[in-house]
UniProtKB/TrEMBL annotation:
Residues 1-17 form the signal peptide. This is Alpha-galactosidase. It comes from Daphoenositta chrysoptera. The gene is Naga. Its main location: other. Keywords: Disulfide bond, Glycoprotein, Glycosidase, Hydrolase, Lipid metabolism, Lysosome, Signal.
Length: 403
């Protein structure tokens, strides 16, 4: 409490995103496909968002916490209207964003939208320059928007330093609870001293630190490498209300194998990352759906303590171990193989992984869902990890050492 009182008056404390936001986002899968004549089913249009809202509401996603339907770039008309207001493309969003928000809300879901702090969005649509910040915040609130992702194409470092905090104030001033996702650090290289994560956590609910994800294992690995190489600087920045965002889940698309899909889900969960899927929920495979709807995984991701996990072991054998502390003295371990040859038997003990001496844990396999039984800190154990795959454990203390 003393620490909270000592902080300067915070721009954002909006009480939102106490756990990492979960939902669906259009960008990675549908990009800036605006050709509704040639490709009506996959173009960025209200129809796409109506259909994804139906899928979230009817296929078991909403009950698990996937509640945001997020529009990304290329939704607006190419010009603002006569009074300078952003307007949706009249052909692709004929009902308007307010009607889309109402549709989404009627299904117990929330609507996210995209803006860009610059003269244009990354896709070349009207941006939010400094003189439009207040107006756009009011427009989004009037439409019933629940989350804003503010990108940073076509803006200078000075404009970003001014504009991102200004938008936080403008969103708060609307009186509507709007989760605020910033791309600010990604445009400043993502690391201190250029990025001040203490200030960022007071301005934004989540932020993109690094490159956009692509539909490939190489892309997932590059993100994992960057986040865990820089974990000493990034990990302390995350917590309830303010999250590092390694970008969307691409599970269910074209670029990841089954093992790699499980690995992305496990590693994003260890990172306390937002779980924003970008895949076609109308045609998703049962195996991809099973990974994304894993209840124990989601429970771990949404742990109320909100501590981001860390890589604690990097072996010459290309096995890595990640640990995330959870509430009630529980934790999760991920054993990850970067090998490309065959399943690898990895032997270690909880003692080697810095667990408290003489404790006993009940171990559950997160993917299989079964309890593996009791494990003492000193016991050696082995896990068999498939190439580019993971074994993920949830550990709950049965007996802790006396302090």
């Amino acid at each position: 409490l003393a620490l909270a009182l000592a902080l300067p008056s915070v721009a954002l404390e909006n009480g939102l995103a106490r756990t990492p936001p979960m939902g669906w986002m259009s960008w990675e899968r549908f990009r800036c496909n605006v050709d509704c004549r040639a490709d009506p089913r996959n173009c960025v249009s209200e129809q796409l968002f109506f259909e994804m809202a139906d899928r979230l509401a009817e296929d078991g996603w909403r009950e698990l916490g996937y509640e945001y339907i997020n529009i990304d770039d290329c939704w607006s008309a190419k010009q603002r209207d006569a009074v300078g207001q952003l307007v949706p493309d009249p052909q692709r969003f004929p009902s308007g964003i307010k009607a889309l928000a109402d549709y989404v809300h009627a299904r117990g879901l929330k609507l996210g939208i995209y803006g860009d702090l610059g003269i244009f969005t990354c896709g070349g649509y009207p941006g939010t320059t400094l003189e439009h910040v207040k107006q756009d915040a009011q427009t989004f609130a009037a439409w019933g928007v629940d989350m804003l992702k503010l990108d940073g194409c076509y803006s200078s470092a000075e404009e970003q330093a001014k504009g991102y905090p200004e938008m936080a104030r403008a969103l708060n001033a609307t009186g509507r609870p709007i989760v605020y996702s910033c791309s600010w650090p990604a445009y400043q290289g993502g690391l201190p001293p250029k990025v001040n994560y203490t200030i960022l956590a007071e301005i934004c609910n989540l932020w993109r630190n690094y490159d956009d994800i692509q539909d490939s294992w190489d892309s997932v690995l590059s993100i994992v490498d960057w986040f865990f190489t820089n974990q000493d600087m990034l990990q302390p920045a995350a917590g309830p209300g303010h999250w590092n965002d390694p970008d969307m889940l691409i599970i269910g698309n074209f670029g990841l194998s089954y093992e790699q899909s499980r690995s992305q889900m496990a590693l994003w969960t260890v990172m306390a990352a937002p779980l924003l899927m970008s895949t076609d929920l109308r045609t998703i495979s049962p195996s991809a759906k099973e990974i994304l709807q894993n209840r124990l995984m989601i429970q771990i991701n949404q742990d109320p303590l909100g501590i981001q996990g860390r890589r604690i072991v990097k072996e010459k054998s290309h096995i890595e171990v990640f640990l995330r502390p959870l509430s009630q003295a529980a934790s999760t371990l991920v054993f990850f193989s970067r090998r490309t040859d065959m399943p690898f038997r990895y032997t270690t003990s909880l003692a080697k992984l810095s667990f408290p001496e003489s404790a006993v844990y009940e171990v559950q396999d997160v993917f299989v869902g079964k309890s593996i039984g009791a494990l003492k800190t000193a016991d050696n154990f082995s896990v068999v990890i498939n190439p580019s795959g993971v074994v993920m454990w949830y550990l709950h203390p049965m007996a802790l050492p006396v302090q």
